[in-house]
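Memo to structure team: turn this sequence into structure tokens by end of day. - J.P.
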Amino acid sequence: MKVRNSMIRQYRPEDTDTLIAIWQKANAYAHPFLPDDFVSQVKQDMRNIYLPNAKTWVMEQDATPAGFIAMVGTEIGGLFLDPDLHGRGLGKAMTDHAVDLFGPLSVEVFEQNAVGRAFYDRYGFAETARYVHEPSGEVTIKMAMSGS
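Reply from structure team:
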């Protein structure tokens, strides 16, 4: 899939350091409310658990990784894009790619993540439930596309 000098490809293990750097930048932008110890643990888990075990696709912009979407079944486990590239249709392109592969999707997003919530609202996800995410202490919203 291409969007203005962009392409989506499958994750490769050599992408790990670059994707973690993108995650750190995007996480700081969208989740400034998360406790440092939680963020540190998630960074370790990205390398050791999430990236190796999820079905992950990388968005390249001008042949350089710019973001990624990680799927666990039909749930978006993570969708992160370099904040400098927001508003160019890259997040939508990654989500479109996942929908093409898996059909209607679900996602969980922190209530305080205004960036992510607005994106999923625009895409057509609707809230299905809320709960307190124990490890972070933050309210999390479960969202789903119609038909998921």
